[in-house]
Amino acid sequence: MTNLSAIIAIAFRDVTKLLRDKTRILASLVFPAIFIGVLGTSLQANLQTGLSFNFLTFVFTGVLAQTLFQSTAAGIISLVEDRQNDFAQELFIAPVSHHTIILGKILGESAVSFIQVLGVVAFGLVIGVPIVLPKLLLLLPLAAVISFFGGSFGVLVMSRASEQRGVNQIFPFLIFPQFFLAGVFSPIRELPLPVLIASRLTPMTYAVDLVRSIYYLGDPVFDEVVLFNPIFDLGVVLTVSVVFILIGTHLFVQNEKKR
After folding, report:
1. Which of 123, 143, 175, 248 is most deeply buried (CB count within 10 A of its CB)?
2. Whole-model pTM above 0.90?
3. What is the domain range of residue 141?
4. Which residue ranges in the chain fall short of pLDDT 50?
5. Which of 166, 139, 160, 155 is nearest to 203 (CA)?
């Protein structure tokens, strides 16, 4: 019960921080608007005639997965801020396990990403994305898995960082290339070999493909927009999440002990 209470308290703190941060809320709505509204519609106008599927829906599903993954990963940056403010040390001397603290952070940032996804869905409806509600509801359990995946990636990236400024500089270089390598905005079935290898090594690839594999399940265009079987995608996401969070938590705790 102590660990559960700690997880809930830490998660609630992150949600509260979001609700007080109007700039972050605004940014969470602006970026999907750019990705779906501007980029998606412009690409659709140029590519739609040569495709058998609705390109706007394709981009919408990609942005859903990207938002869940990126938002949770980026939110873990607050661990570095907490470290600079010595709040992390106060957390790690609490009578709960280190993994409990990390899980609380990921749970809180996952809740934040869910709030941001609601904005993505609302914007998609406004611009006329043909959203199928039953399919969207099927994604709810997977949304939690993908958020956890993003959070574990964030923990690994932030585990050795000592200053927030450094994290803010390096994080975009780790995240933004994944947008294109993961196929958020364009199909990636046929790629040059070096790009193909990079794409398959990109964590976000499996998050995006998992969302699309469920959303397009039973659809005639399934084989055109989905790379792998959803069971394979889910297996990769869960396995890599566990590896990331175990290594990331260990490195983070070791770094705290040296301070």
Report:
1. 248
2. no
3. 2-257
4. 46
5. 155
